[in-house]
Structures are given as C-alpha cells and as structure tokens.
C-alpha cells in the first residue's frame, strides 16, 4: 500500500488549503480513509475520516464546520478541504487507510500511512 499526501503549505489565518492523497495497492472501494495531524511537540490526532461510499463522515470537533473530507474512487484520491484555517491547525497532516470500511477516529484502526505534508498557518 502506498499513500502519497500533498498540498501542504503556508497560509495566513482565515485562508484555505486543499490536501490530496493518492492511494495505490489497496482495495480503495472498500476501505475507509482518514486524515490525522501532528503538531510540534504533540501527539498525532484524528482530523477526519470517510467511509468507502462517502455515506459516513467523522470529524474532530476542532475542525467540524471548517474542514471537509471527500474521495474520488475512480482516481483513488482522498481530499481534505480546509477553510477558515487557524494557527492551531499548524501541523504535519497524514493520510491513512483503515483496516475496514468504517471511518474510525482511532489511530489504531488504520494500518497504512502516508508521509506527512506540512501545513503552517500564521496569525
């Protein structure tokens, strides 16, 4: 399994970014996908996850209403649209593939991880 995340960068508070994750080597149509993040000096935390058909979405409370997770099954891509960014959103963002179809909020339920893409939000 390979997950390639991209789209990170530097933005001012209130701005937007869209992260992308290209997946290969897995049965994308039956795998839940998620985004996690790790800020400097902190543990990795859940951000958002999406079921294979897109019918179930889970979000961390801290990003609900600002971030949107989506997927393109034909292209095997997962996206994270991030709006109204805040300095506290600064982190390395990781794309992950779950063991099953359920978009879990638990890191342990994911067994494939991409490299991080850095998002920096300045005030």
Which descriptors apply to this entry?
123 residues, mainly beta, 11 strands, globular
Describe this structure in words.
Strands 2, 4, 5, 6, 9, 10 and 11 form a seven-stranded mixed β-sheet that branches. Strands 1-3-8-7 form a four-stranded antiparallel β-sheet, with no helix packed on it. It is built from no helices and eleven strands. With 123 residues, the protein is an all-beta fold.
Topology (elements, then pairings):
Layout: E1 2-6, E2 9-12, E3 17-24, E4 33-38, E5 45-50, E6 57-59, E7 67-72, E8 77-82, E9 91-98, E10 110-113, E11 117-122
Parallel strand pairs: 2-11
Antiparallel strand pairs: 1-3, 3-8, 4-5, 4-9, 5-6, 7-8, 9-10, 9-11
Brief summary:
The protein has strands at 2-6, 9-12, 17-24, 33-38, 45-50, 57-59, 67-72, 77-82, 91-98, 110-113, 117-122. The protein is mainly β and 123 residues long. The strands form two sheets. Strands 2, 4, 5, 6, 9, 10 and 11 form a seven-stranded mixed beta sheet that branches. It has a four-stranded antiparallel beta sheet with strand order 1-3-8-7, with no helix packed on it.
């Amino acid at each position: 399994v390979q997950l390639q995340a991209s789209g990170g960068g530097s933005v001012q508070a209130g701005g937007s970014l869209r992260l992308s994750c290209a997946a290969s080597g897995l049965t994308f149509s039956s795998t839940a996908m998620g985004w996690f993040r790790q800020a400097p000096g902190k543990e990795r935390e859940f951000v958002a996850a999406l079921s294979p058909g897109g019918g179930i979405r889970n979000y961390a409370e801290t990003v609900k209403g600002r971030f949107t997770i989506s997927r393109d099954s034909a292209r095997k891509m997962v996206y994270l649209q991030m709006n109204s960014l805040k300095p506290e959103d600064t982190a390395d963002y990781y794309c992950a593939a779950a063991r099953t179809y359920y978009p879990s909020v638990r890191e342990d339920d994911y067994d494939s991880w991409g490299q991080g893409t850095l998002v920096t939000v300045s005030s």
